[in-house]
Structure formats: C-alpha cells, structure tokens
Design goal:
The protein has 2 helices and 4 strands. With 97 residues, it is of the alpha+beta class. The protein has a single domain (10-92), classed as Glutaredoxin. The protein has a 4-stranded mixed β-sheet with strand order 2-1-3-4, covered by helices on one side. The radius of gyration is 14 Å and the shape is globular. The structure holds FE2/S2 (inorganic) cluster (FES). FE2/S2 (inorganic) cluster binds at residues 15, 17, 25-26, 58-62, 65, 67. Residues 15, 17, 25-26, 58-62, 65, 67 line the site of FE2/S2 (inorganic) cluster.
Length: 97
C-alpha cells in the first residue's frame, strides 16, 4: 500500500445507518436529507474540491443521532436537523482572507 494525498482539507461524515423499525438509527431521522443538504451547500460555495461530505454507517451514537462528524477537528454533532446544516458548516469554514 501507499499513502495518498486526498486533496481534501476536511472530511464530513453523516451517519445514514438504518435499523429495524423501532430501533434508534440516524437513517430514520432525516440524515439522508442532511447529507444531501451539506453536499449542496459545499458545492454552492465552490468547496467540493477541499471538503468531502460522505455518508457512513453507524458511528456509535445512535441514541443522539442524526450524527455528523467533522475532521480534522474531530467535532461531533448529535440531534442534527436540516436547519442546523448551514450553521455547522459555517462553524468549520475558515474565514475569507
Ligand atoms: S445509527 Fe447513526 S450513529 Fe448509530
């Protein structure tokens, strides 16, 4: 194997895991829409080449999901709603120079 340069400065993971009905899971709490909204905003800001927004399976915080994690900050957000998406991104974007 070899290390590769991703070219990304940030990685945003959105849990879209699904479970049986009645079990806590981000996938049944609007996380797919949250993922799409995050991607759309990143794209609209022209940041798709530096910020990767990816869906993922369970991150181990099902009871407090939908779960979103930002790296390299290692900042975790639970109970995320569509209305939170813009604020989460703004918290982690570098100010314009
Ligand atoms: S189902 Fe999303 S953190 Fe477990």
């Amino acid at each position: 194997m070899k290390e590769i340069d991703s070219g990304y400065r940030k990685l945003i993971l959105v849990c879209v895991n699904e479970r049986e009905a009645g079990e806590a899971a981000c996938g049944s709490r609007n996380s797919k829409e949250i993922h799409l909204r995050l991607k759309a905003i990143v794209k609209s800001k022209g940041l798709s080449r530096t910020i990767r927004v990816s869906r993922t399976r369970c991150l181990g915080k099902c009871e407090v999901g939908p779960t979103v994690v930002i790296f390299p900050e290692n900042r975790w957000y639970g109970g995320v709603t569509l209305e939170d998406v813009e604020e989460i991104l703004n918290r982690h974007l570098e100010p314009p120079e």
